[in-house]
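Box 4.2: Ligand-aware structure prediction
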Amino acid sequence: MTSPALEQINAALATVNDPEIHRPITDLGMVESVEVDERGAVSVRVLLTVAGCPLKETITRDVTAAVQKVPGVTGVALDLGVMSAEQRAGLQDQLRGGQPQKEIPFARPGSLTKVYAIASGKGGVGKSSVTVNLAAAMAKQGRRVGIVDADIYGHSVPAMLGLGDARPTQVQDMIMPVPARAVSGEISVISIGMLKPRRDQVVAWRGPMLDRALVQMLSDVFWGDLDVLFLDLPPGTGDIAISLGQHLPNAEVVVVTTPQEAAAEVAERAGTMASMMHQRVVGVVENMSFLPCPHCGPEHRLEVFGAGGGRRVAGTLSGRFGYDVPVLGEIPLDLALREGGDLGAPIVESLPDSPAARALTGVAATLSGRGRGLAGMQLGLSPAGRS
Ligand SMILES: Nc1ncnc2c1ncn2[C@@H]1O[C@H](COP(=O)(O)OP(=O)(O)OP(=O)(O)O)[C@@H](O)[C@H]1O
Ligand SMILES: [Mg+2]
Ligand SMILES: [Zn+2]
């Protein structure tokens, strides 16, 4: 008896669909190898898309049945492997091939989620601290809040919310955001650092890769219906601004600065970013504004880093954009704010009556007062006159 031809076996394998993707496993790169010996014994190695795929029994059964039908086949030995991250990425690209990327819910015309991009001219001004505290303050007010930590230089948001090294659960092709339970209410968090295949890996997020990561955080993550989404951006301008402008044209920008930063420079960097993105700057938060006097209380401001930086930035941006860019708040220096960040407990939660927590809660209230919904949204109008 002649052994069955490989072509026939391959044709039989091509009749087997992946149960989740509903396409032939041969088209999906899932058939790694096929061998047949002269006695008609066939060995097939099939790669599952993810380890512990719940549908591996189905695949085993279907592959075995299909190959057994080929005349001359005397036996089928099926070996299951798992795709590498690279192979999975290739598969995803293939599945999206030519098609537009998966939809970003926040960019839908009718989306009611307010999206705030927290930007700064330089690092270390308190962007992440402001982000987590605004998020916590809003969650406390009963709002459904999400945070995208898109800071490619350091991912401090998870630590500031006590999430440690938590990784998101992946369900099919959906990524579940990590819930921050240390706060009343709930904040859903995704950090760009969570997308690294391995924690210790150093990734230079740039250009297309950064763009893909941002899109993934926005479209592959199951956010549900959020009232507010915060994006903690890397400092300065760059690739991320272009990506954001393309994918989230309705995001609005909150600029964080300190009193001693050069107003012109902050306005230049953060403002250029906003105009590149055609996004509105809703206001400026001046952080580390002053040290409340330990003797007299917060009325006596010890202006350790100078004064008026936030106002100057706001003034420069107002002039540049031709609309009012207000100072949303002045956040005092507070040791407890830093400690709260280190401990994973935002100060608006742990010490709500401290001057810093009050100022942050005030900013959150101002932003909330702008409401959920379409008001103030950029509705895709021409960006003319806004740069
Ligand atoms: N108002 C404040 N009072 C005291 N400490 C603060 C205040 N704001 C921020 N800090 C501390 O300053 C440091 C930098 O803050 P944070 O990480 O929020 O800044 P960032 O702009 O996100 O920095 P990076 O550029 O590194 O992402 C942190 O240790 C934080 O706890
Ligand atoms: Mg940060
Ligand atoms: Zn004093």
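In the box above, the bound molecule is zinc ion. The pocket of zinc ion (ligand 3) is lined by residues 293, 295-296, 300 (CB under 6 Å).
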